[in-house]
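ok trying again, last paste got cut off:
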Amino acid sequence: MRFDSGRVCLDLVATFTPHEAIPDGDELRLWLAGAGLVPDRTPLARVGPEWAAAFRALRADVETLVRAELLGTDPDEHALARVNALAAGPPPGLCAVRDQEGHLVRELCGGVECGALLAAVARDAVELLTDPGDRALLRACDGDGCTRVYLDTSRGHRRRWCSSERCGNRERVARHRRRALAAGPR
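nice, full thing came through this time. structure:
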């Protein structure tokens, strides 16, 4: 799993390509921790298939809205209504507690609730889609076959790929091969 899209909602959208990355609760647990939605050491025993299905549904709605924004088309009203309804929910509560060494660390107060975590991601999507500055930075990867969306925070805002190390490297290798073939044998 990658967390380099620039927003947690875009990182969720990226969990579908090139394959389903959150088919079940086990993979969702990894994504929640990797995305920073739950502090380290948070027990996630209740995360199961119904949670994964809820996050996949939110992912589909966010992707629909983001793609409409990229295309300059009107948003799907049903997807917008579902994201807004989730965003209106209470976010997870954070508490500062002492760890075994006596340092303050973050914990979720009152346990981990699916609705609260969905609200955090949906709220991030609402903030992204309603912020003109961030909307202007939305980009679709130019990599061959890549469908990832990201925020272009590069200097000059000329970033072309979701990841220079992955899609950018593939593109550079392909360009090198095309030039080598065009030059012929030496």
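cool. Residues 8-183 form a domain with the Jann2411-like fold fold (CATH 1.10.3300.10). The two ends are 42 Å apart (CA to CA).
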